Amino acid sequence: MRIAYLECFSGISGDMFLGALVDAGVSPKLLEETVAALNLGARLEISKVTRSGIGATKVDVWLSDKEKDRPRDGEGTFHEHGHAHSHEHHAHGRPAHQHPVEESDRYHHDEHAHGRHLSEITKIVALAPIGEGAKQRALAIFQRLGEAEAKIHNVPIEKIHFHEVGAVDAIVDIVCAAVGSLALGIDEWICSPVNVGGGTVQCAHGRLPVPAPAVVELLKGVPVYSNGVDKELTTPTGAAIVKTLVSRFGAVPAYKIEASGYGAGTRDFEGHANVLRLTVGDSIEGSRSEAPELISVLEANIDDLNPQVFGYVMDRLLEAGALDVFGTPVQMKKNRPGMLLTILSRTEDVSQLGKLIFAETTTLGIRMREERRQVLLRRSQTVQTPWGEVRMKIGNLNGSVTNYAPEYEDCRRIAAEHGMPLKSVMQEAIRIYLDQQHG
To answer: Which pTM was predicted?
Structure first.
């Protein structure tokens, strides 16, 4: 099983995550092409820097002459509904066109025409010419971010407003994070406890505590700490990425490190390496307990929901972090045909998935229980077909391969691009994999 381990000893932000991905081997060209595909007028600047003696990769997002990634320190501009605001900000003597896009500049809950709401951002991502897996991952991150901001500011999620430049910056960070994380072919993301920083930050409302309220909301159930650095180390975007990708938090797992990368933060602290470390490798067979893991099961019987909505609900649940979602035809009371909606979930995601079920379906109740499941150790291996690369999902039991299958999305893309039957692509990928195994 291929593992990625994030060490957030100096927190995490969107740009730090992108830097770590590139430093660990993700192609800069892939991220640059992703930004171009979004057609937002943005570009990436990727550079090598040093933080407390450690070489790291710094990724900056530029929109015309406006640069992000300046640390927030007394310049936040979060606005209440109805407050006027302008792009012509000035701070510390810099010309207006050089004003940085701060983390607090990204999220607003007003209705000014020059910004973007979450629904508009969802449409941009959905229409972008990127893989379906990347779209789903990016939308899941944005959904978590929007839900957290909506709860903190006590407004409906559709009212959350992303400042024009900050919205572009956030879209680039999150979509590139989705594309880059998928490119690594990771089966499981694991993370250390997260350093959130400390102190306070000055915003339009006055001084707010660090971590920011949205970060606190996003990282519920996640082990966090502060080591005395009184700066904002973990941003809402970074917290949303972690909460979406990571399946468990804890110490370094037993695995063989194959690649590592360091993503740089903007500040260079004295005596504190302001970097995010990402290491990638294959788990050591038998290192992880094969004892069953505890999961939650949510169920609802539904007999009056439009069938067109049912498929949409399943997609939403998967985007929101469900481990699996399926429907079973059932015969309900009064001989009504219906569907049993079943969701497998991590225990920490039960609350948000339950809210989504109530919001999107007609059910009046949800049954919940805990069950144990046992899963095979899994890893990913890429095979080269005549039409392009296909990832193979491989399951191991006691060191022996028991199951293997080509990645559906890879095969679907190739079949569509080359006008071939999907089954032919899948069969060829399996044949090549077996040929490689048998020498």
So the answer is: 0.62
Q: Does the pLDDT of residue 77 top 90, yes or no? A: no
Strand (E) positions, 64-115?
A: 66-67
Would you list the DSSP string of 11-41? B--HHHHHHHHHHTT--HHHHHHHHHHHTSS
Widest Cα–Cα separation across the chain: 74
10 Å CB burial of residue 310 (0-12, 13-18, 19+) is middle
Parallel, antiparallel, or unpaired for β 377-385 and 367-373?
A: unpaired
Question: Is 88 exposed, middle or buried (CB count within 10 Å of its CB: 0-12, 13-18, 19+)?
Answer: exposed
DSSP H or E run through 383:
strand 377-385
Mean pLDDT over 84-102 rounds to 32
Q: Are strands 194-195 and 224-225 parallel, antiparallel or unpaired?
A: parallel
Output the six-digit token pair for 95: 């010309």
pLDDT value at 259 more than 50:
yes
Q: Higher model confidence: residue 280 or residue 69? A: 280
User: Which tokens sit at 259?
Assistant: 């690649």
**In angstroms, rounded to a whole number, what is the distance separating the alpha carbons of residues 10 and 234?**
8
Closest CA to 4 of 264, 375, 319, 260: 260
**Residues 374-397: pLDDT tens digits?**
887 777 788 899 998 899 998 877
pLDDT for 86 beyond 50 = no
Q: Whole-angstrom Cα distance, residue 267 to residue 270?
A: 10
Q: Return the H-helix or E-strand segment holding 314.
A: helix 307-319
Contacts of 434 (CB under 8 A, 6+ apart): none
